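Need tokens for this chain, all 518 residues.
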Amino acid sequence: MLLSVENLSMTYDKKTLYSNASFRVFKNDKIGIVGQNGVGKSTLIEILGQKIIPDSGDIVFDKNIKVGYLDQYLKVDKKISIMDYLKSAFKKELEDAKRLEEVNKEIAETKDKEALTKLVNKATAIREELERADFYAMESNIMRVASGLGVTNYGMNTMLGNLSGGQKIKVILAKLLLENPDLIILDEPTNFLDTSHVDWLVKYLKEYKGTFLIVSHNQEFLDDVVNVIFDIEFGKITRYRGNYQTYLVKKAMMMENYERQYASNQKERAKLEEYIQKNKARASTANMAKSRQKKLDKMEVLEKPKSSNTKIYLNFNYQSISSHKFLEVNDLEIGYYSSLLPPMSFEIKSGTKLAVGGFNGIGKTTLLKTLIGELKPITGSFSFVEDAKIAYYEQDHNWDNPKESAMQLISNLYPQMSEKEIRSVLARCAITGGLALQPLETLSGGEQSKVKLCLVMLKKANVLILDEPTNHLDSLAKESLLESLQKYPGTVIFVSHERDFVEKLATQVFNIEDLLTA
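Here are the structure tokens for all 518 residues:
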């Protein structure tokens, strides 16, 4: 057993995440952690990574294993290169290699036969240890992992301080994989990977000999790599053997069985209670009523079946336009200070659902920010139809005031809306009760994404420009988002690393990588 968690309890902002929850992790478990937004998936990862202390509970790791935890907020030396940072994954081996150099130097200088024999034996032991650790293939292994995750696209001599947040996380993930721990703990690793790099990670995890726990809302990814599901619901963590689809079937069967037991239990209790009420006052049947009361008192009281399925109901505010041709792009070059890509030209018609594709870092977000006017073109031009109205969904959770609540945020943006109207709109996005009054920074990633979708929904628009809108969303929310976008009569320009989402929504694809091979 690699990890034991017993009686874990945690309350966050008056919300109970876990109540005496227990689970164990065994060797060769490939675990996916799932649950609706806000149930505490990322909090559990942070507890296991010793970033958060729970209210109570015992967490015990096997002392003989190496644990790898992806810390998205890890502070790194900004003045070292990507290659030097990835080489630090082999710190022990590099120290051993230095020791070997020193021993070899001593061998060259030693003439005493007995001392020479000891030094040769020492050098042989160090060399064998380095060979077992595959040290002599270090650079090729670094390039294999870096290439697989798309890190080589940034340039291996690039300083860490020049990377974006998402790029830095991919470099940290690459180092973690190169360290080859016995147990890997990851939170949403596919959020910063495009489809080709997700495919590489799937292959890597399938071949990985160790154990892992991964939080992910990407069902296709979980189906490919896990053999166990931990489902967090109503403060408990339930273990299911199998991949994500198997888990769905097993959970549905368990719920169905429980609902039958509950119905039978309620029926039997009602029958006993009715008999007791009718017969307890009559002398001839009082003893039988007492007997029934004893039976009733001993009966297990089953809780009413609960459902955690909180669906969102999006209805994007469409404003009609007069033109059929919606967007025309002519020899457009994009970038911050200089052009990232060759000139691009394309056009789309009104109602098109355009997926923008390409590997991470190629410029997908830069293109979207150019189209919304946040960045100026380097050269070339683009033009929307004259009465185009844009609603933009930003990938990152950046708030002007992260301490204000969703209620305050919308009230400030739309002062004409009443509290009842604001609560109604937020409820459509499953932000209800106390969630609507919590500071935005205290909401889970998925809950913050739902607030942002709410803002997009409030804006009158005929083109939705969405940058990774499925990141952090649970399965039900993603289904609702897909349905609403499919029904939306306006134009949608979007980026998504989820292949299934793209295939079901896109009517046209613009792959930026094609510009590099044209």
